[in-house]
C-alpha cells in the first residue's frame, strides 16, 4: 500500500474560508485550492492512501466513486508534478 504525504520541508500552507493557500518555498510558487483541495491537503499532511482520499471526497461531496477517484488521481498527479509529495510503502 502506498502512503502519500506532503513534502516535509519548504512547504507552508493554511486553510482559510474553506479554501487552501500554500507556498512552495523551494519553487517560490504560490498555490491556491478549492474546497476539495482544502479537504484533501490535511489528509496528505498526515499521510493518506488514494483510497483514503477518495473516501474523504465521498463523505464530503455528493459525487460518485468514479468521479471521486478521477479527481483524486488528477490532484495527486498535479502535486507529484510539482514535487510536493513523498511516497512510502507500508
> Judging from the principal axes of the Cα atoms, what is the shape?
globular
Overall helicity: 40-55%
Number of strands: 5
CATH architecture: Alpha-Beta Complex
User: Nearest-angstrom radius of gyration?
Assistant: 13 Å
- Number of domains as seen in the coordinates: 1
Strand fraction: 25-35%
Low-confidence runs of at least 5 consecutive residues: none
Name the average pLDDT. 96
Euclidean distance between termini CA atoms: 5 Å
Structural class designation: alpha+beta
Written description of the protein model:
By secondary structure, this protein is an alpha+beta fold. Helix content is 44%, strand content 30%. It contains three helices and five strands. The chain has helices spanning 35-46, 50-60, 65-81, and strands spanning 2-6, 11-16, 19-24, 29-33, 85-89. A three-stranded antiparallel sheet has the order 2-3-4. Helix 1 packs antiparallel against helix 2 and helix 2 (50-60) packs across helix 3 (65-81). It is globular, with a radius of gyration of 13 Å.
Amino acid at each position: 500500500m502506498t502512503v502519500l504525504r506532503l513534502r516535509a520541508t519548504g512547504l507552508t500552507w493554511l486553510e482559510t474560508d474553506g479554501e487552501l493557500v500554500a507556498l512552495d518555498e523551494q519553487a517560490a510558487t504560490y498555490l491556491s485550492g478549492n474546497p476539495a483541495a482544502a479537504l484533501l491537503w490535511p489528509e496528505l499532511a498526515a499521510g493518506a492512501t488514494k483510497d483514503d482520499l477518495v473516501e474523504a471526497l465521498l463523505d464530503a461531496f455528493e459525487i460518485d466513486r468514479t468521479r471521486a477517484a478521477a479527481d483524486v488521481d488528477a490532484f495527486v498527479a498535479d502535486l507529484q508534478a510539482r514535487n510536493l509529495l513523498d511516497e512510502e510503502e507500508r
